[in-house]
């Protein structure tokens, strides 16, 4: 493991400790609504501080883009951080949430860590070095199409302007697959695609910190990640489709009738 990945893992574990400390006493955690259906807790903020302290201690010149505190200027190395992905699950005691840390250098993802402290699962990837779960290599599923496929998604719940076209997509994919899951932590959804637990995943209206690390995990596990049109502009559109090569291709085909303009959320 490279020194940088090592430090990213240390930062993710530090955030994991913060989240674990409060998960069994959620009633003591203050929940504030940022906007409709968008919650933040002191746990999100404390976990983010723990990550930034770890990273800034080692790399004071690097830039940071973090969900709760925004952009911290720096050089061309940019850490993209979601300290607690799946806050709605977390505050309900629903056991599916994670910490996500990615490093982007001159616009290209170089490393990614998605950590699920509750299940002690650490997903890591470095460009060109493959993807791992707890130090064992993982690969996307080799499923050849949608038949029998288990597909993950995120149902729009904040901005409802996506809802109609999303429901069209959902209907198209329900008809052709073994089932759809909405686990509630996009970063973990990508990690599950990388590990072959989900054959594919799509969601509209994400934010870069939801998928920065996860997209590299999928790519390094042999999968494909694109925007809805099959292009590589998903950091601009924030609409993302991921999966093994053949499932991804089949998903794009089913989604195509609902993609007139793949505009940002
Ligand atoms: C959310 C989760 C969820 C996805 C949302 C994200 P948050 O992140 O990843 O699965 O559907 O779009 O915003 O707000 O819990 O960090
Ligand atoms: Ca998130
Ligand atoms: Ca978050």
UniProtKB/TrEMBL annotation:
Chemical reaction(s) catalysed:
a myo-inositol phosphate + H2O = myo-inositol + phosphate
Q: Which Pfam families match?
A: Inositol_P
- Matching Gene3D superfamilies: 3.40.190.80, Fructose-1,6-Bisphosphatase, subunit A, domain 1
Task: List its EC numbers.
Answer: 3.1.3.25
Enumerate the residues binding Mg(2+). 67, 82, 84-85, 210
Q: Which superkingdom heads the taxonomic lineage of this protein's source?
A: Bacteria
Q: Which family does it belong to?
A: Belongs to the inositol monophosphatase superfamily.
Name of the protein in question: Inositol-1-monophosphatase
User: Which species expresses this protein natively?
Assistant: Thiohalocapsa marina
